[in-house]
Amino acid sequence: MTVAAKRLSAARKLMADIHAITDKEGITRSALHAMKKTPVVIAALALVIDLIAVLPARAQLMPDLTVKLRPEFPSVAVGADLRFVGQVSNVGLLPCNRLSVTATFPPQVTSIGAFSNVSAVVCSTGSTRPNGSTSVTCSAGTNFWFGPGLDVAIYYWVRGRTPGTGLAATAVVDPSNACLEGNLANNTVTSAPFSVTGVPTLKMELNKPFPTLSPVGPSGLVTQIFPVTITNIGSAEVNGVTFTVKEPLIVAPDTYRSPTIDVAYPGGRVAEGVQPAARFTPLCNTVSMDHITTFTCFLPARFRTGEQIQVHFRAFTCQLAGPPFGFMVAVPDITASTNGDTTEAFHTVNLHQACYF
User: Fold this and answer.
1) Closest CA to 264 of 284, 285, 234
2) Residue bearing the bigger pLDDT, 295 or 298
3) Any idea where the domains of the chain sit in the sequence?
4) Nearest residue to 333 (alpha-carbon basis) of 242, 221, 243, 215
5) Higher pLDDT among residues 331 and 315, named by residue
6) What digits encode the pLDDT tens for the residues 186-236?
7) Coil, helix or strand at residue 20
8) Which of helix, strand or coil describes residue 328?
9) Which CATH architecture has domain 202-356?
10) Does CATH place domain 65-197 in 2.60.40.1530?
């Protein structure tokens, strides 16, 4: 370690001792003038004066602000939140009486908030630039005391908006050099890369039921086909769909009378009586427990954003859904789900609502 480095380290330690004393004793900055003859202050001032002879001009004898910024995780899903941790430090020998740092995030995410561990540092809500990026500025006024060796933490929250890889955020501290720093090379930082991953989102839509009725079972009740369209309105491919129907009025699987899948296929809806060219083979299971029968079917369907699949459910007819049978043969709701889809809207339908189409 060079002589200059040793003296600089000693000066920083003494300045830290000064901050510790003032914090412990509750001494204000104006009261520091009364401490001019204390050994700690005299030694610190002597070291600073001594450093002038061994350090290059302007180097370390002024405030020197540095900035760091990192994402807490390497990826975030569309619609989910990700936190960035920022830190601003004064590594110089002299204090700065103001602070301003601006973080900029790529268009694939949206800023939803930021705050600092220092109450005097206030963060904006964020502004959108013409290229779609979002900037958040956190600052403190001219009465802010940012002494040598001090750190300020800033936490940013962003929300995934559109998929993207190799993304990065940037941060700039003291962009206007209001602190008259001697070193501006460390005022900008680029975060580690992160990505925004897409998520599938299902949308179930009822269609008008087919008019043909089919007798079923010894009871003489008849069934009808209710076509349902499922669209992937998300930003990632759907890999399998699970349908779940819970029937609380049936006590055994052999008496189960809720909807079943007649046929399922990709693409647009075919007319009644037309056989689709490709089909999905559903894997279904019926389980009864505590007087509740659950019917579950998994479809090995893969479809990308904007693509559809069609599922024809067989259920009791619209006529049987009304009086006098309504309470006896009412069809329960059907819920669809797929891995990665955490939304709740458009996931549940009741087939007999289509009777009013």
Assistant:
1) 284
2) 298
3) 3-52, 65-197, 202-356
4) 243
5) 315
6) 999 999 999 999 999 999 999 999 988 777 654 556 888 999 999 999 999
7) helix
8) helix
9) Sandwich (2.60)
10) yes
